[in-house]
Specification:
α1 links the parallel β2 and β3. The chain has two domains: 225 residues, 2-enoyl-CoA Hydratase, Chain A, domain 1, CATH 3.90.226; 47 residues, Lyase 2-enoyl-coa Hydratase, Chain  A, domain 2 (Orthogonal Bundle). The strands form two sheets. The chain has a six-stranded mixed β-sheet with strand order 1-2-3-4-6-9, with helices on both faces. By secondary structure, it is α/β, with parallel strands linked by helices. The protein contains eleven helices and nine strands. The relative contact order is 0.11.
């Protein structure tokens, strides 16, 4: 079983600095258009649960984005009116009850590697969330940079409900950063559902949209980010991730270095010359 967790040639991901537009994944849908990759979990008959293989393929995909020159923002969503119901009960939960400790640790490290890959890729990730967003699905939403929900969407960090700790895939580190320690503690201790309006009020959702508009709105935001200085956007994401573990003095120095790098880019010069000419800058990401 552990072979499923390893990067495999079956996924046929492009090599270093090659476009991902032609890549056809096995366990989710991928559409690449104008610099935006839309990832769609596509098992709607079961509310888009994850399997061992889809975990691993998503991990490999987000790792590959570090070297993808044609993708500058990502939207992740689910088919059929739901985002993701978490790990598949029959394909994951059942088999896990039969694994020994080394096998269990291989699985939990693999799922954590998916979150690491999402946080490490330079592209901003926008989650378009409708319907059920539970368990590992809630983690995928949490690991995204922006989250758009609908009035009928509901998020559950369900680990407590199945006898597990809330500290799954980085939840105890990332969720308090988004909504605060006390609110994160409540959700992780109880596993209760987080409704859309409460999620927006708490800062988990950036925006609540109509069910028919949520993907459109998320893709529009992705397009807006793609039209911006994408190298600088990647630097912003990196610093947002890294500075949590820094003191203020270290963060200021890290930002000084990061901003100096951005000032050496062509996009910075394009912005200046456009300003002088009273024009809108056209960024190219270099």
């Amino acid at each position: 079983m552990t072979q499923r967790y390893l990067p495999g040639q079956a996924h046929q991901l492009p090599r270093h600095n090659q476009p991902l537009a032609g890549y056809q994944p096995e366990h989710f849908l991928l559409d690449v258009k104008d610099g935006v990759a839309t990832v769609s979990l596509n098992r709607p008959e079961r509310k888009n649960p994850l399997s061992f293989d889809s975990y691993a393929e998503l991990r490999d995909f987000f790792r590959a984005l570090v070297y993808a020159p044609d993708i500058h923002a990502v939207v992740i969503t689910g088919a059929g009116g739901n985002f993701c119901s978490g790990g598949d009960v029959h394909e994951i939960i059942g088999p896990l009850t039969k694994l020994d400790m080394p096998g269990l640790l291989a699985f939990t490290r693999m799922t954590g590697d998916l979150v690491k890959a999402m946080r490490a890729c330079p592209q901003p990730i926008i989650a378009a969330i409708d319907g059920v967003c539970a368990g590992a699905g809630a983690i995928l939403a949490m690991a995204s940079d922006l989250r758009y929900g609908t009035e009928r969407s509901k998020t559950y960090f369900l680990f407590n409900k199945v006898g597990l700790a809330g500290c799954d895939m980085g939840a105890c580190a990332l969720l308090p950063r988004i909504i605060g320690q006390g609110r994160a503690s409540e959700l992780l201790f109880t596993g209760r559902g987080l409704g859309a309006l409460e999620a927006e009020r708490w800062g988990f959702y950036n925006r609540v949209c109509g069910a028919e508009e949520v993907l459109i709105e998320a893709q529009a935001m992705a397009a807006q980010l793609v039209a911006g200085p994408t190298f600088a956007n990647g630097m912003t994401k990196k610093m947002l991730q890294q500075e949590w573990n820094m003191g203020v003095d270290e963060a200021i120095e890290a930002e000084a270095q990061a901003q100096a790098i951005c000032m050496a880019t062509n996009d910075f010069h394009r912005a200046y010359h456009a300003f002088v000419a009273k024009q809108t800058p056209v960024f190219e990401g270099d």
